[in-house]
Amino acid sequence: MFLFACLPANPLLNQLLLLEKRRLILEEKAKKLIGEVIEEAKSLIYALPDNVYFEKILKLAEKNVSPAEGTIIFNAKDLSRLPADF
User: Fold this and answer.
1) Residues with Cβ < 8 Å from 81, sequence gap 6 or more?
2) 3-class DSSP state for residue 5?
3) Which residues of the chain form beta strands (DSSP E)?
4) Which partner for 48 in 24, 38, 52, 81 could form a disulfide, CB atoms 3.0-4.6 Å apart?
5) In this predicted model, what pLDDT tens digit does every residue of 28-74 receive, in sequence order?
6) Sign of the C-alpha dihedral, residues 28, 31, 34, 36?
7) Nearest alpha carbon to residue 74 among 44, 56, 54, 48
């Protein structure tokens, strides 16, 4: 915005700059909201009982299985709550 301070007043340019400023503000608000929704979803998922949590992981893996051999790697927190029969 400072780049245009030395230019003569132009109503159309001013409108375009104002619209761009509003777009950027809305974009930041949307990013923040999406981040909050993702964090809330993660909290809800992590709070599931162990059996339900791992059933969801199993269903997700089965739904997206490929013919190639692969390995699921769990973090320490998940390993500590992993059911014996998983």
Assistant:
1) 50, 53
2) coil
3) none
4) 52
5) 999 999 999 999 999 999 999 999 999 999 999 889 888 888 888 99
6) negative
7) 54
